[in-house]
């Protein structure tokens, strides 16, 4: 272990065991009362100060080894980061303070909010009682301090969430529960809030007899006394405090029928949904154990589904907390993939994330990437290789999009010490990153871990992970030393050394390019064929001029599909513009029809009449297996793309071809797309995308397009039946209210049958693609609108065992896709007048249908109120596109607390977009009030994230909302969320998007202020930091991680020399 890594942790003690005892829980007062006892082993001589983490707590007393009322100081400098009296209002000074103040309470820097002063007589008493023979070593490990802290937590803002319904009915009382919200353990009990301080745990919780407690560890005892129950858990596998979880409520439980080690908990009345949703959980657990050739080190595993969690999935040691909305009945198809993916990810964290943890925030990417890597391997096994590759490509596109539009991502969260670099998001601490940044960084981490897997091989990768698991397992043995617990956390450098030791391959260059640096390359390629030399002349350019791009140095696979087969070659990219000559293995054929061998091993007949007679190249693919995170723009003829789409079986190749064919509207492209859409051998997502591209081509050729849209014909042929008694002529009659009524067409809608999930997804999505069709007047053809109304009115699901909720929701979305602003012929604000005189009949029909479906969903709710969500989105489109003056109070009503959370989120997102388009100060104030006061944390967080994606204005833009009122309101929100780093960081990102890092331009110039203001603030905090002899501390840092203390000391001495 290198000296640089050993010096990352500067605590002067090691924690061996911690007892957490919750003696009282009050839902009415929203408070916890209890105490915690820490068993501490000092690592330095003259150990006189203990620094722990504790925020938003009330500390009553501290006891050390039976000595009560020990002196302590309790101060949280993070509350002082923002002040309403601060006239600067600039992010640059705020970020400097946040960075410095975070260091002052960082446990890995030996700091904390709670400082305990060990009495002098107690120090002498403990030192005298410890037997020591080794003068040089002082045997400090035999000195033990048992520190007991009495505390309470009242009305927490974060850390613990109390869900308490407003009414006091019996059902509402059964619904009351509390749970831990994230990995900030200091927010609900005193601890060492570090990922690299594992300890064994005893957790005792006393609650009412009607309540159930679920906590990290194994339940070893449950006693009842005077209508109170005490649950006692013991976690023998060392775990850091951030991964200690707790949930208390009137839970119902079900034990997995395949293994008794897995238990699932939910609220009252949801047991049927719980049983259906969690029936598969044993599968990923068995798969991970088989893959890693190692058992899960926790004796059991619990899953708790709660209301209003801070995230959909929060993993803890031996348990995980999920959003109750992940539960679904067996009749809902759509919810399966997402729910199983979330639970598979939580189980992967039981191996890498909670059991083996990160050493510091700069190693966050490694554990997050490994957990996502294992989860993706399971989804590949469960849902197939095509789904796996599709999600992989989607993640890569998301990463590229974020780096281009927002911020380049550097996975190594190692802040630069120079304060001048704090404006660069990559130079900030990991705890200062926004949610969107961390989400994109997690996807990039997964891609990088997969690149490592490709570089060293899958079998070797599994051996490395097995080695890490085996080393960590030895640290959990009863006779294992405290220093061996360093094996329970890994770093980027230690992982690189393990790879180098087991494979003799060096991944340092890969880490340097993709972890320690930000950005991703943008490649532009093209090729020509030289018949005279029979070579392919390939040219690749690297565009480094755009945001988030960088130069790539490394190898790249080129796959050429020729007439004689598919051939792969590896080239080396070194310069910005590089030309390569690839040997061609085929000759130009005179006979145009012959079977062509493909990379899959199949041989297909191709019509080669359209290809260049002088070129035997069918198509070329660059990096076909996504071994590099890159943006690719490749130029080849439309015939090449058509052949690639039609005959290549890899879905990534087909998606590339579909994207390219948007630029080639022609009859041949139409025929190719129609053939692929009809092919039952193609992956359903390819066929869906093909329908969208076909609509795009039709709109590009609107002036010359003849015949019916191929997607419409396909849908009628596959999902509808022919009515021979009727002609295809639409007979339209006008009723008294001017609403068009369409008689049944020659094709009638079949009774729903969703037994084939892939065909169901096609049936559900293609109408949305059809709805985007436009004629030469740039409006949706009446035939398409009538077709959609047929699907809605004649939808029949009585004999289908699956729910049609999402299908109906998709049809409503399709109605919204037909809207254009051509239908508006007046600017009147009178709704009745607008509907009766100024809107075309189709727009009025859509408006009436949306109101009908919205009211119907109130009477018979759809699953997750998905129909209501779609109706609200279409109403918003009617307001924005068609100009119908929808009352804003409709969206206020659906955003009210008590509505289903997905409906609330949809309404809030619409209100945010209203701010962006209409610049409404009242709506803006309403959104700010929701962020500040709403009970649902997840809703508040998602509102801020949506504001970041749809800000009302950006820096230096002139806007009525760009005023001091907005600045003051946003600044106050940032100040109020002092205990919640996640929302505060998102608000900081929003502030930066709208006002930049410097003082906002709309504010008057500030008075002359110097850096002394900031320096004085930092000095006030630094005065509370107790200095420790640095030389002695460096020595014991080494001793903390080395089994042989003397060898560690010698190494330090030699380094100093």
Q: Which short descriptors sum up this protein?
A:
Immunoglobulin-like, 33 helices, transcription, disordered N terminus, five-stranded mixed sheet, seven-stranded mixed sheet, transcription cis-regulatory region binding, alpha+beta, 1057 residues
Brief digest:
The chain is 40% helix and 19% strand. With 1057 residues, it is an alpha+beta fold. It has a 7-stranded mixed sheet, with no helix packed on it. The chain has a 5-stranded mixed sheet with strand order 15-16-17-19-18, covered by helices on one side.
3D architecture notes:
Residues 518-636 form the Transcription initiation factor TFIID subunit 2 Ig-like domain. Its main location: nucleus. Belongs to the TAF2 family. One of its GO terms (biological process) is transcription initiation at RNA polymerase II promoter. The protein has 1057 residues and is α+β, with helices and mostly antiparallel strands. The chain has 33 helices and 34 strands. A seven-stranded mixed sheet has the order 4-7-2-1-10-13-12, with no helix packed on it. A five-stranded mixed sheet has the order 15-16-17-19-18, covered by helices on one side. A four-stranded antiparallel sheet has the order 8-9-14-11, with no helix packed on it. A hairpin with a 4-residue loop joins strand 22 and strand 23 (535-542). The two termini are 19 Å apart.
